[in-house]
Amino acid sequence: MTGGNTLFQELQHQDRDHVWHPYAASPPDSEIYPVVSAEGVRLTLADGRQLIDGMASWWCAIHGYNHPLLNRAVEEQLGKMSHVMFGGLTHPAAVKLARLLVKLTPEPLSRVFFSDSGSVSVEVALKMAIQFWQASGKADKQKIVALRSGYHGDTFGAMSVCDPVTGMHHLFGDVLSKQHFVTAPKCPFDGNCPESDMAEMADLLSLHHQEIAAVIVEPVVQGAGGMRFYSPDYLRKLRALCDAFDVLLIFDEIATGFGRTGKLFALEHAEVTPDILCLGKALTGGYMTLAATLCSDHIAEVINSSEAGAFMHGPTFMANPLACATAIASIELLLSQPWTRTVQRLNLQLEQGLSPARKLPGVSDVRTLGAIGVIELREPVNMASIQPMFVERGVWIRPFGKLVYTMPPYIINEQDLAGLTAAMVEVVAAL
C-alpha cells in the first residue's frame, strides 16, 4: 500500500503541475483522485481504493468498464485500421452504424452526420438548420429558440443556446450569438402540459418566426442545466407550434439516448419526431468520443440545392472507425438484453433508496426517472468538502450546484446501487 500511496501522490502532484481539469481552477482547488484501472462499476485508485461509480463517466458508460464485447470490437477494428479520413472515403463500420441508427430512430430521420462529441453534434444541428433556410430562400431565419435551464455543450454555438443566466457560460454572454429563450416547462413528467406552459413559446414564434431557424430542446430531461423532468405532452404541443410557424425542431438526446429515461430515446415518451436529432455520450458505451446528428432526406436535399452544394462542416476524425465499431457493439449489446426491465429495476431502487432524503431539512426535492436519481438541495454544495465525503464512503458521486445525483451504469447490481443511494443520503444528511 505504501507503493500505492506513493504513486497516488506522485500522480496528484504531477497533475497539479500540468493538467487543467473541466470546470476547475488550475491547479485545482479541490482534491483530484488518480484512477489506474476500472472494471464493471468500480474505479480503482492509484492507492488501491475502489469506488463504485455512480456517474457512468458523465452518463455514458452504460455497460460499465472493461467489457469483453466492447474490448473485442476495439481490438478487431484496430487490427484493420484505426482511422481513415471521411472526405471522399467511407468504411464498413460507419455505414453499418448509420444504418443501425436510422433503423432505431423514427421516420423520416434517414441521414446521419458523424462528429467528435456532443457539443459538436449540436453545432452541426444549428448549422444544418441555418443552412437549410438559406437554401430555402429564407436567409433571415438565423436565430435559435432554447429553453431556460437548458444545457447543450461548451462550444460557441452550443453555448449560445445554453441558459444565459443560470448556465455555466454567462461569462461569454457578450461574445455569443444572441438567441431567444423561453421559460422551461413546469408541467411534471406524469402530467399534461397546460396552455400556460406553451403561451410564451407560442407568442415568441408568432412574433419572430421570420427570423427563427429552429427550436432546440432536451426532450423530457434537462440535464446539466438542472436535472429537471417535464411532461412529454410539452413536446407534442411544441411540435405542433413549430409546424404551424415553419420552424425546425431539434432534439438534443446526447444525455437521454440509449435507454437512460426508460425509453431507447426520450422522444418515444411523446411519440414525437424532431427534424434534427443529436446523439452522443452512451453512443459508444463510454469507450471513446463519438456523436451523430440525424436529419431527414428533405433537409439534406434542400441543403444540397444551396449555393455551396454541400453541408459545410467536416471534422478531421469524423466517423472514426474505432469509435463506430465500438458504437455498433455497444448498441447491439444493449438491444440483446432486457434493458427496459433493467432500467425499471434501477428506477424502483433509486426511488426507494433516495426517498429518505425527502425528510432532510436541506432538501428541496427528490426525483427519479429511468436510471436517473436526483436529490436537489436548497443551497449549492461545496465541492472541495463534499467530494471527499463520497470517496470516504467508497463511491464516486460528482454533484454540481444544488444537485446530488446519480446516473449509474445499467449493469450495477442491487447491493452496489444500495451503497450508492445510502451514501448520497448520508452525505446530504451530514451537510
TrEMBL record:
Q: Which residues bind substrate?
A: 58, 151, 281, 314, 398
Q: Specify the protein name.
A: Adenosylmethionine-8-amino-7-oxononanoate aminotransferase
Record-annotated residues binding pyridoxal 5'-phosphate?
118-119, 252, 315-316
Q: Enumerate the transmembrane spans.
A: none
Q: Where is the site described as Participates in the substrate recognition with KAPA and in a stacking interaction with the adenine ring of SAM found in this chain?
A: 23
Q: What is the lineage of its organism?
A: Bacteria, Pseudomonadati, Pseudomonadota, Gammaproteobacteria, Cellvibrionales
Keyword annotations for this protein, in alphabetical order, are:
Aminotransferase, Biotin biosynthesis, Cytoplasm, Pyridoxal phosphate, S-adenosyl-L-methionine, Transferase
The molecular function GO annotations come to: adenosylmethionine-8-amino-7-oxononanoate transaminase activity; pyridoxal phosphate binding
What assembly does the database describe for this protein? Homodimer.
**EC number per UniProt:** 2.6.1.62
Tell me where in or outside the cell this protein is found. Cytoplasm
Record-stated family: Belongs to the class-III pyridoxal-phosphate-dependent aminotransferase family. BioA subfamily.
Q: What's the source species for this entry? A: Seongchinamella unica
What's the stated role of this polypeptide?
Catalyzes the transfer of the alpha-amino group from S-adenosyl-L-methionine (SAM) to 7-keto-8-aminopelargonic acid (KAPA) to form 7,8-diaminopelargonic acid (DAPA). It is the only aminotransferase known to utilize SAM as an amino donor.
